Amino acid sequence: MTEIGTVRSSRDAAIDDAWNAVQSRIEIDPAQFTPGAVESLDGFSHIEVLFVFDRVPETEIERGSRHPRGRTDWPRVGIFAQRGKGRPNRIGLCTCQLLRVEGLTLHVKGLDAIDGTPVLDIKPYMKGFGPRGTVREPEWAAQIMAFYW
User: Which domains does the chain have, with CATH numbers?
Assistant: First the structure.
């Protein structure tokens, strides 16, 4: 996989809460792409961003289960049943608000990636690709998200 751009943000540490207050930029690599690559993207209110948790050391990659955020009052859950940073392939995914497009720079809000994060891909969020049917999640997941955004 090839990095297509970089996140520029005032947040340079992975703090687990208040991401919706963060406005960032995604700078798409002009050596790989022309402005045509983002043509009509401004017609969408939100985008999905795939990125790399590039600062997670190998020793923090989870291959089993753990208590989310280290909280023992929450159940142990497997890495594939949570959205923590210590993922096997270090790939992150976030749906964030697209504020504006300026050339190959995307201004976004609510992207939970820190300054310098490599971006792998960007897709427009389309309701038709959202969940179909009833969405269910455990109570601990709702508690985690209470202050995340």
Answer: 5-145 (2.40.30.70)
